[in-house]
Each structure stands twice: as structure tokens, then as C-alpha cells.
UniProtKB/TrEMBL annotation:
Cross-referenced SUPFAM superfamilies: Adenine nucleotide alpha hydrolases-like (SSF52402)
Family according to the record: Belongs to the universal stress protein A family.
Residue span, UspA domain: 1-142
Name under which the protein is recorded: Universal stress protein
InterPro entries according to UniProt: Rossmann-like_a/b/a_fold (IPR014729), Universal_stress_UspA (IPR006015), UspA (IPR006016)
A Pfam family reported for this protein in Swiss-Prot or TrEMBL: Usp
Highest taxon in the source lineage: Bacteria
Length: 143
């Protein structure tokens, strides 16, 4: 039913994505869909990042994140499935929504943190923004 399935991964809390990945793997295995896994880190143009890291150190950190994503995927994705793995820099919600449209993703499965109303008002919710802006089906798993 869905040809391309995306699971955004927060490598700070990879276990939080485990349930989303289980559902995505079921869809991929049953339907022969493509699996896409991405993670988003703050970009070097972010003032906070630039004030603490040199550009060289930032690039090294992004490479390390890519290695950790690959390691995570190797651990949780069966060997017969070859996921597309990508690391992006920037605002998570914006990057995810852009990825959805550029790769013609049909289904996004992602966890949704339970936050207080104050946190959600001040910080926003990546999952809520993705669900609102995506032009495909979005399955949010609440913790």
C-alpha cells in the first residue's frame, strides 16, 4: 500500500523510535516498501552550535552521527532490508517535511513525546508540525 516509509530517528533517544521502526518494518516486509531512516542535527549556522564548536569539529560530529545511525540501523533492521540512511542539519520538522516531499514518501511513522502544554507552546512539537504539514499519511505513536 505504501511504497516509501520514513522513520525519523532521534539518536539521543533511539529506543523511543523502536516501536515506530517495528511498524515500519512490518509494512516494508509485507508490502516490499522502501525504508527511509533519517536523523536531524543542529546545523553549524545555528548560533549555539557555532559558539561551542569549530566548523571542523562540527563536521566531525556530523560524521559520528552518521556512523551511529548506521550502527543503529544495522542492529535493528534485518539484513535483507537495505534502508536509505541520511543525516541532515537544521530544524527537524522542516527537514523532515522537505524530505517527505523531495523523496515522495507515502507514510511517516514517528513517536510523539508527551510534553506539558507549556513546553509544547514554547518549544513546539516536531511530530505535530510534521503531521500538520506533511502531504502524506503520518502515524504518530504516543508514549
Amino acid at each position: 500500500m505504501f511504497k516509501k516509509v520514513l522513520v525519523p530517528i532521534d539518536l539521543n533517544e533511539p529506543a523511543f523510535a523502536d516501536q515506530a521502526l517495528k511498524l515500519a518494518l512490518r509494512e516494508v516486509q509485507e508490502e516490499g516498501s522502501e525504508l527511509h531512516m533519517i536523523t536531524v542535527v543542529p546545523g553549524f549556522t545555528n548560533a549555539f552550535v557555532a559558539s561551542y564548536f569549530s566548523e571542523k569539529d562540527h563536521k566531525k560530529a556530523v560524521k559520528e552521527v552518521a556512523r551511529k545511525l548506521q550502527e543503529y540501523a544495522h542492529k535493528v533492521v534485518p539484513s535483507e532490508i537495505q534502508p536509505t540512511l541520511r543525516v541532515y542539519e537544521g530544524s527537524p520538522a522542516e527537514i523532515i517535511v522537505h524530505y517527505i516531499s523531495s523523496k515522495e514518501i507515502n507514510l511517516v511513522i514517528m513517536p510523539a513525546h508527551h510534553r506539558s502544554k507549556i513546553d509544547e507552546f514554547l518549544l513546539g512539537s516536531v511530530s505535530a508540525r510534521v503531521a500538520e504539514r506533511a502531504k502524506c499519511s503520518v502515524l504518530l505513536l504516543k508514549d
